[in-house]
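Batch 3, record 17
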Amino acid sequence: MFESIFTSVLRFATEYNEHFSSGMAYLGAGIAMIAGFGPGIGQGFASGKAAEAVGRQPEAQGKILVTTLVTQAVAETTGLYALLIAIMLLGK
Amino acid sequence: MIRKMLDFKLSGPLSPNVISTLIVVFVLGLIAVIVGIKVGKLDHRKTPRGFVFVCVMIVDVFNRFISDHLPGKRTKVFGPYLFTILIFLAFANTISLFGLKPPLSNLSVALTFSAITIVMIKFAEVKYQGVWKKLVSLLGPVKPLAPIMLPINLIGEVSTPLTMGMRLFGNLMSGMVISVMVYTALHWAVGIFAGIFVHAFFDIFFGLIQAFVFFMLSTVNLSMASDV
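Prediction for the assembled complex:
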């Protein structure tokens, strides 16, 4: 009798651990995407400065647009790393 | 993971991303051969017309654009490579409009671009700076700080191309995931109308911007690497 209780507890513990680890992985994926703050602030700052520059020198609009797009794409990289980590955690 | 890598077979079934890559390569190769034959037959005293004129104009605009960053002979050396990258990415990122999987949403295709970039940057450095100058520049400008600067510089050598491939992969894959999420969440009658905006934003806008950004970063990196 004692053994059957023991095995059922053990089975419950393994099932619980399985669900617990997958739930923690989803939680981690959500926490990883907090990194989205950084690229958002960075891209907004870059585009604000670009708007200022166009206001000061409207004739250089083309070059400013190109530079802004490239710098924003560079600033986006950290957010994409967070996205990759989140997707890796979701696949667990 | 290593066992999975060793299980690789050439004759195995290709992933859909690689199949769409091959389709893009085939179509672009066909177009390039046709344009090449037509340009070869051109009469130099007459103005070209129609499709050939558009192609000549595109190449001319492109050469003028990159000659700001890569002046002189370097335009001839790196121009064809950069133009190939730009055209391929522009077609590959918008190919999901035709119902194929975007090739860059597969990590192996994206990391191929990292490999191509790292080879080109090393080639430019060896050709224009020389091996010895490059090795000395890894130590940093201040010689006593060399033990600290050397690992940072070595990481920087690898991380630049890796980041470029990862950026392509992340952008294209996130676009694909969001489109799939929209299509599965909505009824098909609503999904048709939502698909217009989703594809316009994630395939055309982001795809073309990413192609341009990859081309622009390659140009800047190559111009820094080949700067004497």
